[in-house]
## 1
Amino acid sequence: MVAADTDNVIEENEIVGNANGIFLTTGVQGNIIRRNTIVGNPPVQLAVDHLANPGFDIKSLADLGANIFLGNICATSLNAPCPSVGPTLTASPNPIPVTGNAFHGATTLSWNAPDAKVIEVHVGSPAGPVFAEGGNRGSVDTGVWVADGMVFYLQDVSDGRPLTADYTLATVVVRFERRGSASLRPQNGPGRWAWGAALVLGFGLFAIVSGQHVRLRRTALLILAALALSRVTLAQTSKLDEMVKAGASQKELANYVFDTHGCKNCHTIGQNGKLGFTAKGRERAQGFEGCINMLTAMTVIVQVPEEKRSSAQRQKAQRFEEFGCTSCHQLTPGKLGLTEVGAKLAHLHLGCLELEKLTSSGPAAQGGGRH
Amino acid sequence: MKYRLRTAAWIVSALLAGLGTNAGIAHAAKIRGVISATTAIAEDSQLVGDVTCTVTGVPCLDITAPKVTLDLNGFAISGLGDPKTGCSGSSAAGAEHGIRVLNQTGVVIRGPGIVQLFRGHGIVVNGSSGGTITGVTTSTNCLSGIIVLGTSNLLENNVSVANGNLNAPCGGI
């Protein structure tokens, strides 16, 4: 390419054994050269014998940074990056092993994009919700919200590049591998006493560290509140354990959770796998984006420091709490995890979506006391 | 008399077509055989057989209208270059190119197909924009396989092999 050439796209070509592979003369700018295989330019004998005016797989006489080179496979270059491998985005594990009818799983995404300066990982499309951002190499854990078939997009956003397919460096589709049925106790998760102790210790430490500002009476109240919370949690999970031991059906478990976890404040038992709404629930559901979208959005929002959140993000976080999502989903700085109850319910396949299906399936709702 | 002249013209045209020789100003739709003068292409066209170009110092196929598609259909367009070097033996390059797109928009050149042995460039896109060259193999041309002097063109899934020379080391692209 020469002189005023601009906005051309040279992609996925195979260029072998030429005097130069791709040759850009002085002044060429604004072109994209990506995912080409450019090797053996010039041929080995010529490279050995002809040392004057040597050739390259990519020879660029243009200004550095004037053109975009992405993921070209090449061995020699002048003024152009020449990685041996293209950008990658991988998930591990993939497929994610899940048991029963679990709707969500967790994985770790890793990326390597040697030619990019700044990247973002988006969910569902190049311009979908941003899940991670960083340098040209890194990894991040997803948390338990990845659905079967979810697609992640590695976007090059260096120098303000737009979120379009033109700047998608790599994608990965995450799949589920379904295995046997669930066991009672969450695996690898903290025990319920550990959570209670952590809360108590946390508040205790807070009191010690900021001792001169915190009155002893308030600290005592906080500790009592933490103990009370842990006791409620314990009571609920203990009851679930007992029910499972007694051979309760999945539907009975679902009904218990529905009755005891605040679901019925806003929902009524519905039909055909869909919950209904109480008057309060109907009012709150105005403009609700749906559980999956809200969870996806929250995975992003938790990574934004509270003081830097936009008003829309603050509103969404507030709704997340109002809707009772925090009973099961734990907001910690930079991460959306599960509470003990959440981990327990997820393990028993009693997440929100499963709960809705179970409680509202069949000809009529079971159990009394529900709307 | 007028009728006889028209009939004679038809017969001559048919004979020329039968010989596979394209006249230089044809607005070809189906191309094959020997081309001895630049063939202007102003409508969608396709190769229906291998093409041997004996033109010197000028392009073999010249796309002269916007939004024209040239389909190579798996055939070859070959010039007069040396089979080993693509040039005039080992000496300097000649000037003839395989396909030229000059000052046009939206032209498509589609493979599979090969453009080879031209003593100039295999394909020249000059002053043109919005064009696409896809699936074309350029091989053993004395200058570039494909050279682009234009804006917003797309070159994808092409193969460039053994193009260029030592005196003017152009690129595969």
## 2
Amino acid sequence: MSSHTPQLFSIVPGSTAPIYRQLVDQVRRLVAGGQLAPGAALPSVREVALQLAVNPMTVSKAYGLLELEGVLERRRGVGMLVADRPVGMGGASGAGERLALLRPTLERAAREARELELDPDTVLSLFNTILKESP
Amino acid sequence: MTALPIQMRGVARRFGSKTVLDGLDWEVGPGQVVGLLGRNGAGKSTLMECLLGLREIDGGSITLFGESPAALSDATRARIGYVPQKSELFDWMTPLQMLAYFKALYPRWNDGKVESLMDRWGFDIVMRNKPIRRLSGGEQQRLSIIRALAHDPELLVLDEPVSALDPAGRRDFLTELIDGVIERGTTVVFSTHILTDLERVALDVAFLKDGRIVLEGDLDDLLDGAAHHVAPGARTPSNLEDLFIEVTR
């Protein structure tokens, strides 16, 4: 039943964001960006826990929060699905919200840039280059 | 009400004039997965050894599932698994002999699990019949973990269980911990200096310093809290490593 890539999520232990929060942010981004369409099934808690080598309770916690937010829906006998109309994730009008999802990552990058004493223009031109690179 | 897996009250332990545990209070509830953190020499191994009745205490009281570790019933002993930091015991035996010896001591022994772990963790026919002292540090540690998991314990105490393992071995261990141990609701207490591994599996952490548990709590809450309560002008923390340095300084 899994139509997604084998490794949907990735986590970085040792960062300032706890693992559950990294998972929540990633699901929000994937849903906002359309990689996870409404009705798409998420891998089971156990699958994610084993793939990432993290405690299953941590994955449950992330899924539970996303369900509360209305991003995911628990469907009996099926598991977790992307909600039909995920809250706050609608089309072009959601551009502002999608941008907001990028903010934590950019804040982190900005902090590191300051720590490295790089000037803003240099950093921005690097970011521009990266944006234009094909994935 | 069933007794807690671990309850420690005012536990003291001295070595000569050095006080290692100084009126330590600590409780671990059923199904908790707790990382025990502390600097080198903080007394993590001593705490674990006292907990399991391997060392006497100079004061206070300890119970494991309601019983004193010094006088554990066979039934309660069978509910506990322990991986010591380093074990030279039984090192003249081969892995097969050692496992057969332990199997005879326990009422329950999961042969299927032992066989599958031996198989997955590289114990081929040659290695199974080699004296344990001639195995590498990592191989000995893997064997020690297999022995501790073999009787499906309800409480698992792990003292630096991955210190001799390479990254692939550590990942195999974490996977087994997640799938074969945590999934069964086992209570787990483990110490490690590899904080990224700890963050993956521990839901709670406890910091040992100056002979006491100075901070304990839900790891996510501690990390969220640390990020949100930064003194103005302070370096913006805070991951687990920052927290460790801050708390144990």
